[in-house]
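As the work plan foresaw, the team has encoded backbone shapes as discrete tokens. One protein thus recorded appears below exactly as we store it.

:::
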Amino acid sequence: MLLIEDLFKETWKELEQAPSTPDHPFSLGCLATNDINGAIKQRLLIFRKLTSQQNLLFYTDSRSTKIDQLHKNAGASVLFYNPVLHLQIFISGTIVIHKQGKLWDDHRGKIEGRSLQDYNTQYAPGKHIKNPLGVKRTEDLNFALLELKPEVIEYLKLRIEPNRLRALFTKKEEGWEKTFLIP
């Protein structure tokens, strides 16, 4: 008999492995936030780490529009999909923006080489330019660390036989509440 605990463990196993496993499908997630008008804005981000508190870490330019969006509404969600396992994981929660501190320092120290160019442009991401080859760089590193604190996780296995599987995990003070859902 399939136990809901098995699905819960599989979710965290995949999330633990993704940041350190080359080509893991969960190494890239689709992050959704609300823009200033309340519309949903989505973008792909590299999933950098699962913390010991089961929070998800992502990097971004500290001047990106998502930072302003998250200051206004810290609620966000991320969607992962593994086509080999036919597994979709949807996580919603609250994002904490780190621009200093020990956690930020630990991750800032990992940015090197070509990756530095993701955070050192003269102008903020999204600014109109005439020539993409003429982007000017500065010594400043405009790096922010996003920490998603999960509150709700939806597990959906889109397998063919015998049934698709769907479960809901909701974080409560006493731990995670787990229930199966109709797929």
Summary: Strands lie at 28-34, 40-50, 56-61, 75-82, 87-98, 143-157, 165-172, 175-180.
